[in-house]
TrEMBL record:
Residues 171-344 form the Glycosyl transferase family domain. The keyword Oxidoreductase does not apply. InterPro entries: Glyco_trans_1 (IPR001296). This is Glycosyltransferase.
Amino acid sequence: MRLIIARSNFFSYSETFIEEQINQLEPIHVLYEGWQPSRLKAGGSIYSFPFSILAVRGVLRRIIPGLYQKIYTHYLRRFLRVHKADAFLANYGPLGTNIYEACLAEGIPYSVVFLGFDAAEKKTLETYGARYALSLPRAKAIICVAESMRATLEEIAGPLPNLHVIPCGVDTSRFIPGTPKDGFNVISVARFAEKKGSLKSIQAFEMLLRDFPDSQLRMVGDGPLWEEAKEYVSAHGLSESIHFLGAMGQSDYLPLLQESNVFVQHSVLTPSGDSEGTPVAILEASACGLAICSTRHAGIPDAVIEGKTGLLVDEHDVEGMASALKELATDSATTRAYGVAARKHMEEAYDVVKLSAKIKGLLI
């Protein structure tokens, strides 16, 4: 299969699932650069001069977006012909709306992966909904990482028999259990963004400290709410218990997962409609044998079997999350059992090799 994969970024620490997808599916080319990706990860561009100049593309997008889309489609069609592509996989719904015309014109089956906000955020749906209605019924496959996305997309585009729910996966050969440190050690790996609920996780952990003052929380990640979170921790005298480690690559935070007992993430639906799909960090932590403490949000209740691989609470229920953390801190034997079950659940239902094979089978 001569597959083209498209994504919006060259690389992002928060998009490890796309990196895994590329590694497993082995495309002949990867395109990136926003919702009209034109640059090749291997180097070069689908454009010739002067459109290969970023500033030129920026002006055209801003001043005459309709004409720019026609130019983009023309060059993408040429690229697909030259490289004899026979399948196209677009990551994120908005990107899919910009590549489908070229694929249809060249007779190339295209598929679109929805990963969270693109099937939930109000502004995104208002902007791209009409184009979803045009492009999705004609796609070879629509892949959603959580069942919760189906209703929204079918409300926009009508019944979609080509829609498949395939969650993000985890490399269970790489993310394996380690030896937790002594004490009660909690970890979070997430961008400090509203839907991740990092401050709510901090507040729940703060309540835990009243009964378990020696507990430790390490937080991997950065983002728009990082400074606010650090200010809260400092103002509440929590700096000896809560540690901010910044953005890290998988190889750097993997040992931290393996040293921990519990993974925490208080994901929420934001007022703008932004939502998770299936948080990959929860899958990675589960594969490492950690008990999970999270929320009943998007694909999390599928990834975390409540009362078996971890504990879940309602969104915004900070006190409930604090109680869940206290339960995990109190009963170390059950917490370890949750971790063992979480590892087994990942091997059976979320192994990236198995899930990638399912995706590959849908593309042509």
